[in-house]
Amino acid sequence: MGTWIAEQITCKLIASSVIEEGDRELYSYGFFLLISKIFFFFVAVIAGLLTDTTVESIIFYVVFMLLRTYAGGIHARTEMSCTVLTTLALIASVLVIKQLEMHTIGAISLLMFGIGSLCILVFSPLDTDGKPLDKHEKRQYKTICIAIIIIYVIVALIAWIHCIKNIFYPVCCGICLESILLMLGKICDHRESRNHII
């Protein structure tokens, strides 16, 4: 659905001579990413409204998506499966945030945050066949990931020290979800590499 909408927007811009035909693929992909992010933002917000964690859901979404952009992670094979799985992951994360706030599991969350941050620092960035990264881009993305993690660590520690749960838990969950997707992506890449060798 997102692809179709992105292509329709691109076609109209080409027909209006706003963009050139040669840039069709670039703009279609850009519009697709924008539409996807807007859609998933609304999914997170709706899940937040239903669980009375709207602010937390927005913080979580920003934390997760910013990391996802530069760290990468596993990708579904089809747009439909990507939409469904991402929607489920976002909803599940919001539910986890709600449970963490209710039961105040700070120490375990801090441990998971640390492990997740370490995984991202070690294994990012992870490129895909559709969007391969050259050596320069990998170094650049790695630097950005490190900077993002440092900022998140500072924010999370300050929130933990001052018991600001509606900031601490969303940041933790954003880090943990991205680290899980990154690890799954690495495992899938490793298996595919072995299959090619065999």
Present the secondary structure layout.
Layout (H helix, E strand, L loop, with lengths): L1 H14 L8 H28 L2 H18 L7 H25 L2 H18 L11 H27 L3 H33 L1
Percent helix, as a range, is over 70%
The percent range for strand residues is under 5%
Rough shape?
Answer: globular
Describe the main β-sheet briefly.
none
Order of helices and strands: HHHHHHH
Count of domain modules: 1
Radius of gyration (Å): 18 Å
Distance between the termini: 37 Å
Number of strands: 0
The oligomeric state is single chain
Number of helices: 7
Question: Key features?
Answer:
mainly alpha, 198 residues
What does this protein look like?
The mean pLDDT is 86. Helices cover 82% and strands 0% of the residues. The protein has helices spanning 2-15, 24-51, 54-71, 79-103, 106-123, 135-161, 165-197. The protein has 198 residues and is an all-alpha fold. It has seven helices and no strands.
